[in-house]
Design brief:
Radius of gyration: 21 Å
Distance between the termini: 45 Å
Structural class: alpha/beta
CATH architecture of the largest domain: Alpha-Beta Complex
Number of strands: 15
CATH topology of the largest domain: Quinone Oxidoreductase, Chain A, domain 1
Largest sheet: 7 strands, mixed
Length: about 425
Amino acid sequence: MKAVVFHDVGDIRLEDVPEPRIEAPTDAIVRLTASAICGTDLHFVRGTVSEMKPGTILGHEGVGIVEAVGEDVRNLQVGDRVVIPSTIACGNCSYCRAGYYAQCDTANPNGKEAGTAFYGGPASTGPFHGLQAEKARIPYANVGLVKLPPEISDDQAILLSDIFPTGYFGAEMAEIKDGDTVAVFGCGPVGQFAIASAKLLGAGRVFAIDQYEDRLRMAQRQGAEVIDFNREDPVETLMRLTGGIGVDRAIDAVGVDAEHSACCGHAEPDEAPPAKGENGQWKPGDAPAQALEWAVQCVAKAGTVSIIGVYPPNARTFPIGMAMNKNITMNMGNCHHRKYIPRLIEMVRAKRIEPEKILTQVKPMTDVIAAFEAFDRRENGWVKVELLPQRLDGTGGSEETLIDKAVADTFPASDPTTMQNPRSH
């Protein structure tokens, strides 16, 4: 079968690999009908998150059809259509039973202290082969697969695998209450869903901070107040627009690969920036967490900062003094996808939100390398890329589909002023 395989930093290939097989009684084999490219994948390709094992299949977002199940998978059958949560969990340990699926004690073969297990990640996460492939083995499938109702399309479901739950998780960790003023740093796919989720949770005002016109335009069509950090200092602007108070909640949806504005950098004039390596890249752990610094600076006293942007384990830069002196609450972590997906499926079924509006490209798997390159360059109009590993009839291949007006259309489709707080239901 065809799959996207990591070989080295900057070297990924679409190539033939062996088909997966059942290895444990709780496994299932899923034929992928949709996958996607995520910003987290770029961390691995760029090398900003290290320890990727050559030969690992990339991708952690997937929708498909169950083709085989192990003898202990008793809630699914061959032919079921499912969405695959990006993080892997056993469902039995104390963390899973408490809803902390991303901190499962069992799923990661590196041990209890190894952290989150997920598809297509570095050695420390398993590693598990990913979902940018024609088929995939799903461990703990009785927990790690969620059946889809027929009215949920693949275009909708692929956003339920990772980025919608992650954006919602970020908004929930921000402790948003009715009427709160919220700043979302980063208007990529996760940031867009953080904006939508903040409104679902009752935010009164949402500010969206980025430098790309297409992403800011998408955020503005959600009703967010947009700030281009290349044109103005985002912290000064936020303070001015909030009467000098700052925002109640801030969400960092960027992480380690934040880009820096020449006019709005974090360093003072006499402060030397962290050293770069020979290739001109920041040394691991030394890259300034620009979005996080801005979040701490702009949040009001006793406010909350939520971090869903990806940082490597060796990241060391953080404005701890300012955060402590402002009595800021910090919440962060990997999303517990399995906890949120059923809830979000019901929101989509109720037409409270149409997640597919974020899709800007739908590409056949044969175009995946070019799609990675365009997404990495942040080409105009490339916000979220869906991949089609095969036709629904299983014959392989697909014609390219371009959703021409995705950026121009309102996202989400629901009028933000009519969104109801899900906590009240």
